[in-house]
Amino acid sequence: MLRDIVPPATLATDLYRSAYAPVVQGWSDAADRIIAEYARTLAQITHDAPADVQGQIDQAASLLQRLILSITPSLRHWALRVEGWFRGKWRGAVLSATGVDLQTVIGPEDVRDTLEATIARNVALVRNVSDQAQARISEAVFRGLTQRLPANDVAKEIRGAVDMARTRARNIAADQLSKLSGSLADERRREAGLDTFEFKHSGKLHPRSWHKERDGKLFSENPDRVGTKVDGKIIHAASEIPPGDGASQPPFCGCRNLSYMIFD
Questions:
Q1: What is residue 124's predicted lDDT score, i.e. its pLDDT?
Q2: What pLDDT does 122 receive?
Q3: CA-CA distance, 45 to 155, in Å (whole number)?
Q4: Which residues are bridge partners to 233 per DSSP?
């Protein structure tokens, strides 16, 4: 079995700072203007006043939409950094296990589709973080106006919406790093002609019970290996794992597939 390759948390922090934090900060900056407009509107409520608050929210959303459209280069830079880091670790793991150096035979072009899919997915996720923050802020403002809630109460809700966006964005960044590294591990394994892997459970406090049950089991994409034993373990069919439920695939799953070498 090749040694596990676990990316450092700093790569998740880099993703958050380069792609997600600017959007969260944008809503944080807009919150002060929206709160001020809410307080003014509440003090002199008129027929057009709610539209003035909505205008502040729409203006912030428009600015952030343009920002989101500009983050693709940052995401591509991050994805290439992760791929380069992973490729170096994968090369070392294979060299240690087999004595074969893959330096000249693998590169980022081999996993281009995975990288592009990761970039597109994160653009969509950043937009979703922004949209949810906007929805929560809008709901707080217009519920406040309807119920004539004090400005301080609504301000607390608005800032709470920004804090929720920040927490969610950080969690997403960590999850996206896990997903990209898991996808790269599977691609490099197949590229090396290894059809068998061991499922390693994340060890998280609140696991998916069926993932925990897979911990330590061997799975193979080669039907000829299914049912045979290696190191005292029966090899199961990889197809037993439902699509989308493999290691690192479900939301916030930290499980991993460890490449398993079988010398016939």
A1: 96
A2: 97
A3: 17
A4: 230
Q: How far apart are CA 25 and CA 42, in angstroms?
A: 26
Radius of gyration of the chain measured on its C-alpha atoms:
24
Report pLDDT for 45. Answer: 63
Sign of CA dihedral 214, 218, 222, 226: negative
| Separation between Cα atoms, residue 231 and residue 114, nearest integer Å | 33
The answer on pLDDT for 49 being more than 70 is no
Q: Looking at 5-14, 17-26, 183-192, which range is the least confident one?
A: 183-192
CB 259 within 8 A of CB 2: yes
* pLDDT of residue 96 exceeding 60: yes
| DSSP per-residue letters across the chain | -PPP----HHHHHHHIIIIIHHHHHHHHHHHHHHHHHHHHHHHT--SSHHHHHHHHHHHHHHHHHHHHHT-HHHHHHHHHHHHHHHHHHHHHHHHHHHS---TTT--GGGGHHHHHHHHHHHHHHHHHHHHHHHHHHHHHHHHHHHHT--HHHHHHHHHHHHHHHHHHHHHHHHHHHHHHHHHHHHHHHHHTT--EEEEE----SS--HHHHHHTT-EEES-TTTTT-EETTEEEEEGGGSPTT-STT-STT---EEEEE----
